[in-house]
Fold Pentatricopeptide repeat-containing protein.
Amino acid sequence: MACSARNTSRVYKGIFQTLFNIGTLRPRFVHSCPTSLIQNLLKFRRDKPTDQLHRALDQCGVDLNHHLVLDVLRRHRSDWRPAHLFFNWSKTAGYEPSSDVCNEMIDILGKMKRFQELHQLLDEISKIEGLIDEKMFATLLRRFVCSHKVDDAVQLFRRRKEFGLDLGSEAFCTLLMWLCRYKHVEEAETLFHNVMKKDWNADIKTWNVILNGWCVLGNVHEAKRVWRDIVASPCKADVFSYAIFIKALTKKGKLGTALKLFRGMWDKGCRPDVVVCNCIIDALCFKKRIPEALEIFRDMSERGCEPNVATYNSLIKYMCKIQRMGKVYELVDEMERRNGNCLPNAVTYCYLLKSLKEPGEVHGVLERMERNGCGMNDDVYNLVLRLYMKWDDEDGVRKTWEEMERNGWGPDRRSYTIMVHEHFEKGRVKDVVRYFEEMIAKGIVPEPRTEKLVSSLNIRVKGRTEKRESIEEERTRL
């Protein structure tokens, strides 16, 4: 199957090179999958001048529609230039981008930190009434904040009315959520209190965002302060407040306090839900108190709280660690029988993949995953790639890499990081340099540890080269 894909790519390349050398011909391709045709064209000609690429796209003769444009963009999530070139060409070819298509393009540019292009696109689409919706606005906020452009995100929020969007509490809550998620909790809380001073009464949902921000940051001291503020406020802590605080306590190893809070919920008339139970089960498993975790797991249904996939995943995670694989697959079978909210997901299969001992077992897990309707994602692909690299299975690495590329799930920064570091561990300097150069050529910013590794490698290579040249000079002199 991989050979077939590779041969097909070679055929396309030959066809493109032949046709583009004939200036007078303007063929119209007939192809069962126009998305694959365009994807291959963008791949082979990604570094060519823009006007030349546009002419090549003109010659494809495909009928542009919403589904096709969106599919092409999604296949280039980790390679902004081809996506941007195709998006711009589609507009010149008569296609009017929908809100979903613009949102996808904004997400790609923001992810790759191409903010000049993003601002140009935002200025362009803001002139079209009704094109910017809540989904696109949330994407913009997320991409600005995750690149730590807090001022830009706040200024954008203040422009909501320009885009025809209301300045409601829900929108404000979304801004606080993204600020907190990317560790700008102090700025989020300052903004929160400044708005409260303007006679705005915060609800428990907004308080929970700030509480969760400090908890995710791991600052239990500040989380306790916010918890006391919630208790003192007119708002009453709800089940989400308890879930957030209990999770923070268990992460810091304060299991005793968390259990006390968990048991006290019944006295407060706030019945623990599955999220709270999952926190306690996960914390007990982490402390190797698995019998107690299983006891809470069994009591959940009796108390009217049905377990979900996260409940099972907590147990499976730690069962895999102690290699109780019989119990693990018993739980997986039970998940499949219960179906619904208990059906195994990508996280479940990642735990199963991590417990494997040899390459031949991978296919069985992925087949079971497909049978249960669980699609592949970048996390699963990168894990499989790492496993094949660890086992030094070149065929598995090649097939996984090609499949990721074909299905639009990468290769992304993690994929290249895996290849660079694993090849380095195996002493393959040429492969390290090759993957690193390919990553840079795609505009993917390497992790600091990868840059450090390649930098030290260059020094070592230079040192060996100088030593070899010195020996050659000495031999020549003699």
